[in-house]
Design a protein that fits this description.
15 helices; alpha/beta; three-stranded mixed beta sheet; about 40% helix; 15 strands; about 500 residues; four-stranded mixed beta sheet
């Protein structure tokens, strides 16, 4: 986040580089967040935002993982140690390829041909060597598809155990579904040698979404995945795989921003293989329509030093910025600390809105915890200053709705709040002239932090009591609709 004090000319930036293309760095502890909002049951105005449906499926919180009656894995894994991690990865490859053997002929010419080889290595072992001819694999917790010899490889030493620990066994299938998505696009010729890297990666994300919808339908004989917390874990892994925001979309290994990856995965989950095959640079550009240039800019490096401290002063600056953007008749008052009492709302720490007093109360220590900078090296899901600032912004959006005379509880209020928070983030992507002469400007990395929060603390998509909707897909979709839209659309979509 760029912060320019009165009279200052410098720019503060941050760097957030992911280790390889794997889930390892995320190590998201979704259950460890201090916020555990109640899930609201109900229906919104549009099927797109229906809190009870995800990709046409019921939003459920059932079992996720390896089925108790799953068949044994079959096939040969080169360099395997014979352990549980390799057996799980091979089971996932079996499942994904079974899916594509049945699905591929429905959309592409010919039959799906299984990959030529599967390989395992240990990224914690300096003697592990190389995969795909030239890729050094020591200290590279990754999974990859090698076009050179049509093989799939994965790290059993760091990647697989960390993915299982923090995301569950189904996340391993999600990682390998992305890599086998590259095998699908190679066989179907949906990309070519000159295709941009981001197109190849977005197609692979999409193909993974198609497969995981099949799993969520209950059709996989090996894995089960619910459409709420388990799917949130999968999406969180995709965000962790996102590229650093200073990396060009054509850089080798480029996967795109959090918004890019979630969007591509959701296209597959909601659509089919033909949807994925149609992804090209123009389609990706269409998804970016409405996004301010600053939130698409991969050229600015991000460093931890550029994180804005979460203090009374920075929260005051945020409030000043939001007031200038939305110009409410009566701006809410910010209070930091103290005991929150409210006649018409329950607390939603670390930030709460009380309609009766038009006050936003912040637990500063709690807000600092969810806004503490975390990258791949800290072995946690991406978070940072905008994870916290977006939460406070959402409480301000409740004040905006209150002045419109709108209901502030229930699923419509929760999703409307997410949408309006997206509008606010859009407005903060360019400098806003403030009476104080200071500025607070968001960049692409900040947006990733806000989206991560939608999967963890859920507060950006919650009502005045802090209650949210069950599916991360729905929360992110509502947020995105505001990010590329305006307040009128938010009020129209969630009346």
């Amino acid at each position: 986040m760029t912060h320019r004090p009165r009279g200052a000319a410098g720019r503060r930036v941050r760097d957030r580089r992911c280790a390889g293309g794997a889930l390892m760095a995320a190590c998201l502890i979704l259950s460890a967040t201090a916020c555990a909002p109640t899930v609201i049951q109900g229906r919104a105005a549009s099927m797109l935002y229906d809190p009870d449906r995800v990709g046409g499926l019921r939003a459920d919180s059932g079992f996720s993982g390896v089925r108790h009656d799953a068949p044994r894995p079959r096939g040969h894994v080169e360099r395997t140690d014979g352990g549980d991690n390799d057996r799980l990865a091979l089971l996932a490859v079996n499942d994904i390829e079974e899916f594509w053997r049945a699905t591929y002929p429905q959309y592409f010419a010919g039959e799906y041909r299984p990959v030529s080889a599967t390989r395992s290595y240990d990224a914690s072992n300096p003697a592990s060597g190389r995969v795909c001819g030239t890729t050094v694999i020591y200290s590279d917790p990754n999974a990859s598809y090698c076009l050179r010899d049509d093989s799939i490889s994965w790290d059993r030493g760091i990647l697989i155990p960390d993915a299982r620990k923090y995301f569950g066994d189904v996340s391993v299938a999600a990682v390998l579904a992305h890599e086998l998505g590259h095998a699908v696009q190679t066989r179907a010729h949906t990309v070519h040698r000159l295709s941009r890297t981001i197109v190849k990666e977005q197609q692979a994300d999409c193909f993974a979404g198609v497969y995981l919808h099949w799993v969520a339908q209950g059709r996989s004989p090996r894995f089960a995945m619910n459409t709420t917390d388990a799917l949130d874990h999968v999406i969180a892994g995709g965000i962790t795989l996102r590229d650093p925001t200073d990396e060009s979309e054509n850089t080798p290994g480029a996967h795109g921003s959090a918004l890019d990856r979630v969007g591509a995965f959701q296209e597959g989950f909601d659509g089919d293989a033909a949807t994925c095959a149609a992804i090209d640079h123009n389609e990706i550009a269409r998804r970016h329509v409405g996004l301010p240039p600053a939130l698409q800019d991969y050229s600015s490096p991000d460093t931890e030093a550029g994180e804005m401290p979460i203090t009374d002063g920075s929260l005051g600056l945020l409030m000043e910025t939001l007031t200038q953007i939305f110009k409410p008749d009566k701006a809410p008052t910010l209070t930091v600390g103290g005991t929150l009492t409210c006649a018409d709302a329950s607390p939603s720490p670390p930030a709460s809105y009380c309609p009766a007093t038009n006050t936003i109360n912040v637990d500063l220590a709690g807000l600092q915890r969810i806004g503490a900078y975390a990258d791949s090296q800290s072995r946690e899901l991406l978070q940072g200053d905008d994870t916290a600032f977006s939460v406070v912004t959402s409480r301000y959006m409740l004040a905006v709705q209150h002045q419109q005379g709108l209901a502030l509880t229930g699923e419509r209020a929760a999703l409307r709040t997410a949408c309006l928070t997206g509008v606010a983030q859009r407005g903060m992507a360019t400098p806003v002239a403030l009476p104080s002469g200071r500025t607070m400007v968001l960049n692409a990395g900040d947006l990733d932090e806000a989206i991560s929060g939608l999967l963890t603390n859920h507060l950006v998509a919650s009502d005045t009591d802090g209650d949210s909707v069950p599916a991360g897909f729905t929360r992110i979709t509502a947020f995105r609709s505001g990010l590329v839209g305006d307040t009128a659309q938010c009020y129209g979509n969630f009346p």
